Amino acid sequence: MPDDHHGRSTRLDAVVRERGIDAPAGDGSDASASASRSGPRVARVPEPHVHDTFSVDGIDTKRREALLEAVLRDHEGVSAASATERNGTVGVHHDPSVSRADVQDVLEACGLIVDPADRAFEIRRASQFASARVAVAVLFGLMVATPYIAVLYPTRIEWLFYDPVTVDYLQSLLDSRMSTHFFVNLGSLSGIAFLVACGPMIKRAVASATAGRFTSESVFVGSVVALFGYSTLAAFTAFEGTVHYDLVAYAVVVVTLWNHFGVGEATPDTASIDESAGDGSADAPEEEPVAMTDGGR
User: Fold this and answer.
1) Which string of b and e fits 211-224 if b means at least 16 CB within 10 Å?
2) Which of 29, 112, 149, 179 could crosslink 56 through cysteines, CB 3.0-4.6 Å?
3) Same domain, yes or no, for 131 and 249?
């Protein structure tokens, strides 16, 4: 049995050896493995079987995903299992006679740390929303930055552009009625990016302000709102000022990327999840139940 990518044998490897389970041929991500099947991996699930989802820590390679799925499927009463490295979640379809605690014991025997709060569905959903916010921030940020680079920056930093005729032409466009539509587009893009990408942060800042607390998030949200309002006045009123929708977009992109990759936005987001909420992951039974066992990939 080969070691994991850290160069050491794990408890999961020991469980696989004890049960005599065949190890996966590769790491689960090579082209040959992907080509061997078309579409998502599925398994037939008996009608009375139930589904449980666990949030775990320790699935750090594709190979460990495959090993863990094999161990779970080898357990009596389990009809299907899926492990997802990306979200750190494990889904198991099993007979009602197999309790959730039994499955948790199997996971812990493999050296995994299982979240005892039963928040796996909420954690997975929060992770997906966090990824969507990153996409919105980056895409909308680029959509705001491109017009600024092409039109506005040449008129503001004229000494960088050697063609004064082009600069004069761009300035004439901004002085025309066309500028209204131009700034409407930029304001909408930067505003949507701020509301969507920084939605959880805005809620926390509002809650802190309501409670009379002053936080760094409150400073950031207040600064962005003030800058957006200033830019809107400069764009659509007689107020003489510079439109800075680009700075709004840049701030949203930087903070969103930092929260997601720097300090891990999933921590504050999932901390606010109501633990009393239902799992919500079990769908209504169909005539012929089919379990998706690819972990949503």
Assistant:
1) eeeeeebbebbeeb
2) 112
3) yes
Q: Which domain holds residue 202?
A: 123-271
What tokens does 203 get?
């809620």
Tell me: pLDDT of 34 over 70: no
Q: Reduced to 3 states, what is the DSSP secondary structure of residue 263? A: helix
First to last CA, the chain: 26
User: How does strand 113-114 pair with strand 42-44?
Assistant: unpaired
Mean pLDDT value of segment 182-196: 94
* C-alpha–C-alpha distance, residues 98 and 121, integer Å: 20
- CA trace torsion 167, 172, 178, 179 (10° rounding): 70
- CATH at residue 47: 3.30.70.100
Pairwise CA distance, residues 107 & 89, whole Å: 11
Which amino acid makes up residue 286?
E
Strand ranges (E), the chain: 42-44, 50-57, 78-84, 89-94, 113-114, 290-292
Amino acid letter for position 138:
V
Contact 139, 196 (CB under 8 A): no
148-176: burial string, b at 16+ Cβ within 10 Å, e else: beeebbbbeeeeeeeeeeebeebbeeeee
Q: For residues 189 and 207, give the distance between their C-alpha atoms in angstroms, rounded to a whole number.
A: 25
For residues 208 and 264, membership in a common domain is answered with: yes
Between 224 and 26, name the one with better pLDDT: 224
Yes or no: say if 171 and 184 are a contact pair by the CB < 8 Å rule: no
Please count the structural domains in the chain. Answer: 2
Cβ neighbours of residue 244 closer than 8 Å, sequence gap 6 or more: 227, 230, 231
Name the pTM for this structure.
0.55
